[in-house]
């Protein structure tokens, strides 16, 4: 998802220029990952956000449905870190994501994340297989 230019030039006189780099990542919008999952979020002025996640992949045999998410970002002016939780509406599981937004050398924004999924275990004995 590209969002315009990341820097601007400031003239200093005869043949000199300094580039002021203002890397930003605006998390508000629609994002798609390499597997085809879609996330749409809106961030408020305090860095809190909510939205929806529509996964393209699932180990669950239920019909995949759009699921709500809630999160928070830090330092929205400089490639922020963030975290969010997805409450899957089609399974007894929850996933937490943590990551950072980056702007590449072509001014394209990228979200790099890691996730941890917890599904409901039927018993304490089955706890070992409930987290991936």
From TrEMBL:
Disulfide bonds join 25-101. One of its GO terms (molecular function) is biotin binding. It is found in: Secreted. Keywords: Biotin, Disulfide bond, Glycoprotein, Secreted, Signal. Pfam families: Avidin (PF01382). Its main location: secreted. GO terms for cellular component: extracellular region. Residues 1-32 form the signal peptide. Forms a strong non-covalent specific complex with biotin. Homotetramer. Belongs to the avidin/streptavidin family. PANTHER family: AVID PROTEIN-RELATED, AVIDIN-RELATED. This is Avidin. It comes from Crypturellus undulatus.
């Amino acid at each position: 998802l590209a969002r315009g230019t990341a820097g601007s030039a400031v003239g200093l006189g005869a043949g000199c220029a300094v580039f002021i780099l203002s890397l930003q990542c605006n998390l508000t919008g629609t994002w798609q990952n390499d597997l085809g999952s879609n996330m749409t979020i809106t961030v408020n002025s305090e860095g809190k956000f909510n939205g929806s996640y529509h996964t393209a992949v699932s180990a669950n045999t239920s019909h995949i449905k759009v699921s709500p998410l809630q999160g928070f970002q830090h330092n929205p002016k400089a490639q922020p870190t963030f975290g969010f939780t997805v409450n899957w509406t089609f399974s007894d599981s929850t996933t937490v994501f943590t990551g950072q937004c980056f702007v590449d050398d072509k001014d394209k924004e990228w979200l790099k994340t890691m996730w941890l999924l917890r599904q409901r275990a039927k018993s304490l004995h089955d706890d070992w297989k409930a987290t991936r």
